[in-house]
Amino acid sequence: KAKKAGGNAHLMFNAHMAAEAHDNLYLESEIRHGLEQSQFTLYLQPKVNMDGMTKGFESLVRWDHPERGIISPAEFIPAMESMGFISQLDNWILEASFRQLKVLEPHHPEIVISVNISSTHFTKHSFLVFLNECLQKYPINPNRLELEITETLLMENMNEGREVINTIKQMGVRIAIDDFGTGYSSLSYLKNLPVDTLKIDRVFIKDIPDSESDKQISSVIIFLAKQLNFTVVAEGVETLAQLNFLKDNHCDQAQGFYFSKPIASHKAIIMLESERINQLNTDTATPL
Ligand code: C2E
Ligand code: MG
Ligand code: MG
Ligand code: MG
Asked: Which GO MF terms does the UniProt record name (predicted)?
């Protein structure tokens, strides 16, 4: 730590370290306070089929900070992972998602909610215990819950990851591989795991239809994934051209700003109800 640099550089280095340590301490106490004060809230982003009908939602956390407003997870998830808060946050979001499933159950029992689970949390025994407790406390069909994990987790911890996935599947809960294509896993490896869903990362979608190579990569991923019986979801769909491309390539579901940004969780049921009314209206308006 004690760098033997020139006098001033040495001082500056220490001052910088001290400032950083101070920032981290400050952030840590803010996160702790935020967790105590329930400043973290659940947002839901619709996942739709190729006809634009909502099939499920992805749970996305937002930090509703009293002074700084809504803060996106990219700004605090890495800090939470390194400071050891991520389990608490993920469990909180998981339970909030169970509550939503319960709310949706009477009229929308087919809706699936997908929850992101950090790799540092996923392989902990305490996570499986908490998941089990939630399944007891909120008696919904476990098939309506999906856990999103990243490829990196699987690659770094193959045997452990495989074991946890098997246990979760035995509980009846679905598994999705998130951000597919950005890591090093292959479809041939995934086909040996009881994975239900593959989410193609936004990087392969964002330059469609301009990028020929991204169109080729995406269509190959979709084709092979369907051959292996995965449900395929494209993330980050922002345009009609992208949707049409996905439709032409028989992708199952899409998620992105073209359909909806993440919404506050209490709005999900309202959205589903109005979608149903619109559907009824178009059905009756259609001439024979
Ligand atoms: P992710 O799981 O890949 O989630 C998709 C991200 O893409 C979300 O960002 C979503 O808001 C964003 N997105 C969706 N549609 C579009 C689009 O059309 N265009 C663009 N540009 N972006 C779109 P968000 O909400 O900022 O979350 C970022 C990441 O933080 C997530 O990536 C996920 O890895 C992580 N995350 C979010 N919530 C949780 C959580 O509760 N627990 C854990 N462990 N991680 C979480
Ligand atoms: Mg995700
Ligand atoms: Mg993703
Ligand atoms: Mg992503």
From this structure: cyclic-guanylate-specific phosphodiesterase activity
Taking the C-alpha atoms of residue 267 and residue 258, their distance in angstroms, rounded to an integer, is: 18
Determine the Cα–Cα distance for residues 182 and 281; give it in Å rounded to an integer: 42
Report the nearest-CA residue for atom 25 of ligand 1. 60
First vs last C-alpha separation in the chain: 78
Q: Which residues have a Cβ under 8 Å from the Cβ of 186 and sit 6 or more positions away?
A: none
Query: Is residue 177 within 6 Å of ligand 1 at its C-beta?
Result: no
64 forms bridges with which residues in the sheet? 70
Cα–Cα dist 114/66, whole Å: 28
CA of 148 to the centre of ligand 2 (A): 6
Residues 6+ apart with CB under 8 A from 275: 53, 54
Q: What is the tens place of the pLDDT at every residue in 15-64? A: 676 777 777 778 889 999 999 999 999 999 999 999 999 999 999 999 99
Q: Is the dihedral of CA 83, 87, 90, 91 positive or negative?
A: negative
Scanning the chain, the segments in alpha helix (DSSP H) are 7-36, 77-83, 86-104, 119-122, 125-137, 151-156, 158-170, 187-190, 212-227, 240-248, 268-285
Structure ipTM: 0.98
Q: Is the CB of 179 under 6 A from ligand 1?
A: yes
Contact 164, 123 (CB under 8 A): yes
- Tell me if 116 sits within 8 A of 146, measured CB to CB: no
